[in-house]
Amino acid sequence: MRIWNTIRHGLATLGLAATAIGVSGPAQAKESKPALWQVSDKDTNIYLFGTIHLLPPGTQWRSAKFDKAATDAGTLVVETIIDEKNPAAFAAEYARLGVRAGLPPIVTRVAPEKQAALRAVIAKSGVPEAALNNMETWAAAFALLQVQFKELGVTGTDGVENTLKQAFITAGKQIQQLETNGEQLGFFDTLPESAQRELLEGAVEDPAAAKQQFNTMFAAWMAGDVKAIGRTFNAEFENSPALKDALLRRRNANWSGWLERRMQQPGTVFVAVGAGHLAGDDSVVDLLKRRGYRVKRVQ
């Protein structure tokens, strides 16, 4: 299972670090056109934009259609909001859910043949092994993934959500979230231990393979190739139904319900969530169509 992108996606989504999963220099499409949809009735207009949460520096991904939709919207809705002025609040929630005494030693939570690689990643991370021993497996995986970020040469300011949030703040517009920090972290915290250990093993995957996986997803996103994005995410989760249910299906169902309720209120809203949530079967787009809404692709 190519779980690296799953962890990267989750960590980037949660904003657990001020770094972006940006691999310098992936080839960009001649014309950038990430997928954008519109759901509307007589007095409500909702744009749905699939993002890669954090991007390579200098990525030219914006378009005239994107800019118009964002400008027209009075409210931005993202997956979760990290209060950058009060990071201690998020850190406390992370510790509340992710730290617990009496857990098995961290190195025993991967297959024997991967323990040497895990020890090497721990040494590079600078996180004491004793501290990792007291972390839930998903939380330890997130902490150790920072090593892959550093080895890939990552940056922290070019993500779609960050760009949108700054624009809406500057314009004095409202920003809302679909999930609280605790709710989003909780999806990982309630994973069965076997699924959490898949995440941990992903944190010690080969950086070269990680770069190739990211570049494939990045190219599909830039081209607006929703089918390719859907195939990639299905491949990520094909061997782990628990991960797919927790990180995609349940959240997509929650979000489509939120959108249906929001359609009962007037106004224009711009919703930006990870591209994988808007692609493939059981996506937010698919669920809205099943509920009888006309979801129009505008880019």
Overview of this structure, please?
The radius of gyration is 19 Å and the shape is globular. With 299 residues, the protein is of the alpha/beta class. It has one domain (4-12, 32-297). The protein starts with a helix and ends with a strand. It has 13 helices and six strands.
Summarize, please.
It is built from 13 helices and six strands. The protein is of the alpha/beta class.
Coarse morphology = globular
Low-confidence runs: 1-7, 9-27
Instruction: Decide which structural class fits the backbone.
Output: alpha/beta
Terminal residue distance = 31 Å
The helical percent reads 40-55%
Q: Output the radius of gyration.
A: 19 Å
Number of helices: 13
Strand content: 5-15%
Mean pLDDT: 84
Total number of distinct structural domains: 1
- The strand count comes to 6
Q: Major sheet: order of its strands?
A: 4-3-5-2-1-6
SSE ordering: HEEHEHHHHHEHHHHHEHE
Largest sheet: 6 strands, mixed
Secondary structure elements and pairings:
Layout lengths: L3 H11 L21 E5 L3 E8 L12 H9 L2 E4 L8 H12 L16 H11 L3 H5 L3 H16 L7 H11 L3 E4 L3 H9 L3 H10 L4 H16 L3 H12 L3 H22 L4 E8 L9 H7 L4 E3 L2
Parallel strand pairs: 2-5, 3-4, 3-5
Antiparallel strand pairs: 1-2, 1-6
Helix pairs in contact: 3-8, 4-6, 6-9, 12-13
Which descriptors would you attach to this protein?
6-stranded mixed β-sheet, globular, alpha/beta, 13 helices, disordered N terminus, 299 residues, 6 strands
